[in-house]
Amino acid sequence: MKITYLTIFFLLFNQTSVPHDLVVTYKGEPIASVNRSEFMVPFLDEPVIDEDIYIQFIKELEQEMYQEPVDAKINNNGVIVPGKVGYKLHRQKFKELFYSYFFKTGSTRIEAPVLNIHPNVDSELLADIRTQQIGQYITYFNTNNKERSHNVSLSAEAINNHVVFPGKTFSFNEVVGKRTEEKGYLPAPEIVKGELTEGIGGGICQVSSTLFNAVDRAGVQIMERYSHSKKVPYVPPGRDATVSWYGPDFTFKNNYNQPLLIRSKTVNGKVIIEIYSSDLVEYTPRKVPNASDRLPKEIQIFNN
Length: 304
Fold this sequence. Notes:
Protein name: Peptidoglycan binding domain-containing protein
Number of domains: 2
InterPro entries: Glycopeptide_resist_protein, Vancomycin_resist_VanW
């Protein structure tokens, strides 16, 4: 495996036999240590910083200290859980400190300056847009199929508490992400090119279909939606939305003047998806037929 020049700097930091004259700390703890000579353009009379090496150094620092912000959410008890502020390296301030060190002599320590990254969704916003339900849809699944039920619940949780701001487009594939074993998805029956087969994440199309009907009732602008090549039992004919990581997606655009909040959960064999917004939202609901409450039969696939 190829090890970058700057990665070697980080590895050498733990070796006390190698002298360094710049130590970078974060929250008081050392995260990197380098020597100004490593950043110099060679064969020049005056010290000049090699920008390529410096940029690589900055990238490694950012990876070391980056903290992603966490949006506020509503827990299962209906209580708003505050979000958390994230952090990233303040590039401009660090550059000023680094250049000051580089063009002087001697050793020094720099506490890495940070920029706060505020979450997109805070408690105040959630409290405002949870007030009015503008769409809802319920579908039913057979809990005897443990693997499929697990995938349905996992993908329903993935879209829960997601906020779509005015003018923005929601993508099911983007929000849920790739369905993999590493994320906990299990093999279960699914329809691929008109054939019933078994695949990782089988069952998630029930969630995307339930979401489609919920947002359609809310009157939002549907951007991309595809039906299965075969009839599915959990929604009325033509009311499904098939999704696949390398294929179809389900997307819609928030064409309203207020953010939309998706609340999604599974309870006792039901997928329940609700769409909320603030009291100020101006929306036009659509009529959408209900799903049958008759439980689908458990699907089994026999391999020869």
